[in-house]
Amino acid sequence: MRARIVFDSASDASRRFDRGRGEEAMAQQIPIQEGLFTWPSAAPRILGSRCGGCGEVSFPAQGSCPACAGTETEDVPLAREGILWTWTIQRFPPPAPPFVGDREAFEPFGVGYVELPEGVRVESRLTVNDPDQLAIGMKMELVVEAFDRDAAGNERMGFAFRPVAA
Questions:
Q1: pLDDT tens, 4-13?
Q2: Residue among 7, 8, 5 nearest 18 (CA)
């Protein structure tokens, strides 16, 4: 079973308790992909782009507009909260590649589209995999969490959305 570590603040993100040695250790945490979200950050945001010609917002950030093909785009941080537009539970390992995890230790996970106030729908992993805890139209918030480790031992951080506590 893969441990899930969720960080809500930059101070949490900069340190990790190493239970194996019983001491606090600095963990090198890097984003799973540069330019995808702000990290480290006390309030991480995913990064999109806005077209200077037509105003279309895209995620991930793009150098040209998918609506009008304009090339006058600017990078913009997107809202941290949105509405769950639709969702499903991934109950079997995706084909390899792109799946790189341990197929024997696979755990089902939620996947959904979260509509942000900017009008863009972001496909994302959800922190919840229980259908009884998910509903179309519910408020969701962005979190950054450990995804895996690279060959050098760095923690690769990814983003997900979780239900907003009522």
A1: 334 444 444 4
A2: 5
